[in-house]
Design brief:
Blueprint lengths: L1 H27 L2 H10 L7 H16 L10 H8 L3 H9 L17 E4 L2 E4 L4 H11 L1 H8 L1
Antiparallel strand pairs: 1-2
Helix pairs in contact: 1-3, 3-4, 6-7
């Protein structure tokens, strides 16, 4: 089991590094050079995948420190990037694992029912789910209303 966990953390680190490469390419290359770079790696420079790689790559220095808590799929790591920094740090402090979250748990809707109150979508479903599962509904209610 330990080998599996170490391998999963290495995969998460590799995914984070891959995204950092795309982010740095976007930051340093001219627009046409970046388009060529993206084509060479099999993506369109305007694709949502590239946009998400860049979002992950930008936060890679913060995320890589916690690779053992990160999912290895870039699409799930992207969802982690949507968590505000303070909240992310709180989850890390509590050693909350981000790997078990499914993409359906991150779907966006207008309102989330929480302890008989409704919270506006200014907090994403992911954030509310993480708050509820990590901190309990009382904290979510205090944030939402």
């Amino acid at each position: 089991m330990e080998i599996f966990k170490r391998t999963e953390a290495r995969t998460a680190r590799a995914t984070l590094q891959m995204c950092r490469v795309v982010y740095e390419a976007k930051q340093t290359l001219e627009e046409h050079e970046f388009a060529d770079f993206c084509a060479a790696i099999g993506y369109k420079d305007f694709s949502s995948s590239i946009r998400k790689f860049c979002a992950i790559g930008k936060l890679q220095p913060r995320l890589v420190k916690h690779a053992s808590l990160m999912p290895h799929e870039w699409s799930k790591i992207y969802m982690v990037t949507q968590i505000p920094a303070k909240m992310f740090e709180h989850f890390v402090e509590k050693q909350k694992d981000f790997r078990g979250r499914s993409r359906t748990q991150t779907s966006k809707t207008g309102f989330v029912k929480s302890s008989k109150r409704y919270c506006p979508s200014s907090l994403r479903i992911w954030e509310l789910y993480m708050l509820q599962s990590c901190l309990g509904c009382r904290f979510v209610v205090s944030i939402c209303g």
